[in-house]
Amino acid sequence: MVNGRSYAWALAILVGLVPAARAQVRPDPGAPAAAVARLFPADARIGLVDFTRVAAVSTSGKAMSARIEALRSRKEAEVNARSKDVAALESKLQSAAVLNAAAREQLRRQFERAQVDFQRFTQDAQSEVQQVQREVEQAFLEKARPAVAEVAKERSLWAVLSMGDSGLVWWEPALDLSDEIAKRIDASPAP
């Protein structure tokens, strides 16, 4: 029986993506990324990049994550403050048995309005965080594209696939260019 990894290598050799001589050289999966990067096959024509990892290790990616996390924390604090206000109104309404009917009805309407406002505010806060996250991620990808192009040209690659959206099921770790691209992004001048 042939395991999936062996089958993938056999298929890659068959279609010529990886020369047969390279098929025997396998980096240790526990090896540091720098050691794996040295093993990038000189005759490979396809490279891979994991933008999640690039964002996690590059200075620009860390700044992006910090910006998103700061906004998320600020919005979370605002939501919590409004939640406490709604809870205080609810508590006031529950202890308002001594109020006359008109005052109790006014307090009930105020509580209902506060609940609706809170729900809208929460949805708006989530939308704002998601929008900023999309914008920041798009800006990061635009900054990464020239670095990817440089690496691809230097290595004479035909294509560089994003590991996150390519549908890859298996890949040779030596084809991963993520760390090299992260270094290029850090070395590039700020826009």
TrEMBL record:
Keyword Endoplasmic reticulum: no
Coiled-coil zones: 86-142
GO biological process entries: protein stabilization
Alphabetic keyword roster: Coiled coil, Signal
Signal peptide as annotated in the record: 1-23
One GO cellular component, as annotated: cytosol
SUPFAM superfamilies hit by this protein: OmpH-like (SSF111384)
Gene Ontology molecular function, alphabetical: unfolded protein binding
Pfam family, one: OmpH
Domain of life: Bacteria
Gene3D superfamilies (UniProt xref): Skp domain
Stated family: Belongs to the Skp family.
Protein name: Outer membrane protein
